[in-house]
Amino acid sequence: MVDRTLVVWDDALAAHDFGPGHPMAPLRLELTARLARELGLLDAPGVRVAGVRIAPDELISTVHSPAYVAAVRRVSADPRLVDVAHGLGTDDDPVFAGMHETSARVVAASVDCAEAVWSGAAEHAVNVSGGMHHAMPDRASGFCIYNDVAVAINHLLDQGARRVAYVDLDVHHGDGVEAAFWDDPRVMTMSLHESGRTLFPGTGWPEETGGAGAEGSAVNVALPAGTQDAGWLRALHAVVPPLLRAFAPDVLVTQHGADAHAQDPLANLAVSVDAQRSAARSLHDLAHEVCGGRWVATGGGGYDLVDVVPRVWAHLLGIAAHAPVPPATLVPEAWREDVIARGWDPPASMTDGSPAWYSPWEAGADPSDPVDRAVLATRRAVFPNHGLDPWFG
């Protein structure tokens, strides 16, 4: 029997803990899972929740070098060690006991999602613990140890997918996934992020469009700091749908980092929960339009642990389950009580009260507007590679 939606979740995924004070606290995953349960999303018709395994080294090494995997294993077994050459033991990526095992579970969760969608066992699949898009083949970077998304995409290619599209909504450039497929025309990576002029990792410029033989396969929209809902959604819709339709992927993989939100402490965009919900709905609809509904979705960044991340990812789960949560829905009281008991002030509802409105590109562009300039730079750099007009598509 085909599941409409597969959700890979196990409490062990929340063991990915860099320690006290680190922005990527496992609380955000714990609260997301509990909120989804309280909203009834994990029990919705057609939803199956699957446990998680530890990915074998052979699978991880389809993207990461064996030497790097061995380095992660060493520091994982003895957290007194550091290996700065491999990015292990830095402020961003401190070492902790069991680092390899917890990171390998995240990889397995995303690969299992990809396998379920590709095999037809599920139409959509979600791993909110995934989206570790900064990890490079030979080093950790930006809170990311293993690049689960890149391993999952590589698995899809190994299983016979001819083309895979990846859309990254995290406020930070999806540099690790882009690097993994820089020379591969079978994979289109699209990243909508805050400009590297003001944010880590300092990359993701519109002129970065892919390696020799893969020109136009890397797509970067570098938005100015302060971009709000209308500009963010306008940029997304001006770039992603026309390219997805032209590329015609077999599978759509998306990363839903929640750190573009106005309250995120590590970035400078001003995007609401409502706009991120709207973006997830649009990507869901595009998956049905361009690739028969084959959609793999992951989490990603997001460091407002209570007010933002659980709501954004609960909305994602609801959309993937074909049971979208109306924005005005009140947050379940049991969840609120749990949050209060932990010493936090919980949100009251599933909305920020934003209309999530935007003016479509087709209504006319304004070259004096910084968001439109960013969008036009991307369209000029990439669209001609796909037979599209930069101004009119």
Automatic annotation (TrEMBL):
<dbReference type="InterPro" id="IPR000286">
    <property type="entry name" value="HDACs"/>
</dbReference>
<comment type="pathway">
    <text>Ketone degradation; acetoin degradation.</text>
</comment>
<dbReference type="InterPro" id="IPR037138">
    <property type="entry name" value="His_deacetylse_dom_sf"/>
</dbReference>
<dbReference type="GO" id="GO:0004407">
    <property type="term" value="F:histone deacetylase activity"/>
</dbReference>
<feature type="domain" description="Histone deacetylase">
    <location>
        <begin position="22"/>
        <end position="317"/>
    </location>
</feature>
<dbReference type="Pfam" id="PF00850">
    <property type="entry name" value="Hist_deacetyl"/>
</dbReference>
<dbReference type="InterPro" id="IPR003085">
    <property type="entry name" value="AcuC"/>
</dbReference>
<comment type="similarity">
    <text>Belongs to the histone deacetylase family.</text>
</comment>
<dbReference type="InterPro" id="IPR023696">
    <property type="entry name" value="Ureohydrolase_dom_sf"/>
</dbReference>
<dbReference type="GO" id="GO:0040029">
    <property type="term" value="P:epigenetic regulation of gene expression"/>
</dbReference>
<protein>
    <recommendedName>
        <fullName>Acetoin utilization protein AcuC</fullName>
    </recommendedName>
</protein>
<keyword id="KW-0006">Acetoin catabolism</keyword>
<dbReference type="InterPro" id="IPR023801">
    <property type="entry name" value="His_deacetylse_dom"/>
</dbReference>
<dbReference type="GO" id="GO:0045150">
    <property type="term" value="P:acetoin catabolic process"/>
</dbReference>
